[in-house]
Amino acid sequence: MTDDLEGFTHRFEQGSAAGSLPILLLHGTGGDENDLIDLGRVVAPGSALLSPRGPVLEHGMPRFFRRLAEGVFDEADVKRRADELAGFVTAARQHYALEAPIALGFSNGANIAAAMLMQRPDVLSGAVLLRAMVPLVNPPAASIPGTPVLLVSGTQDPIAPTSNAAQLASQLRERGAGVEHRIVPAGHGLTQADVNLAAAFVKAAAKAPAL
Ligand code: MLT
Asked: What is the torsion angle, in degrees rounded to the nearest 10, for the CA atoms of residue 28, residue 34, residue 37 and residue 39?
């Protein structure tokens, strides 16, 4: 089902597995609400899937925030969009009766998830950030104690270099998150290793006590 909530076109799939946490799917540049549904089903079988479309258009390609150039972000827009996405997640939790979700974001979707973790620490139970980079040079001094975060970077990624992802890992750790940063032999595109790491992480996070 594709629907609209708080101005976000999105797709929602009901969960079937008792005790599973919902997954917030956040696509990369040029994707939409359908892109990561199959990935979500494999990574988190039986979980409810909530998949919004990025509301910003860059030459017709949906994104979750504006950028000024490749890898150069409009940080005021990042903050504003992170707040709006947090509003959508809050509304969707009420509408669909959901617990706080784990974000599963790729590229631009991973970057907005990272921004939301630091700007609106109450919104997510955890996050899988695939090919993420620093979205905010000086993020808010949020406290996210124990929030589990998996970052997966590719050794040959020209868009989100491992060194930049390592800075993001530090920002998140400084705010208390439990960060696992894994580096796989890949470029910006996802591989089976990403899927396996994400699935193991989500399984473990679902068993951990609710935050
Ligand atoms: C971004 O947010 O711009 C990403 O890191 C790169 C992309 O989405 O192409």
From this structure: -40
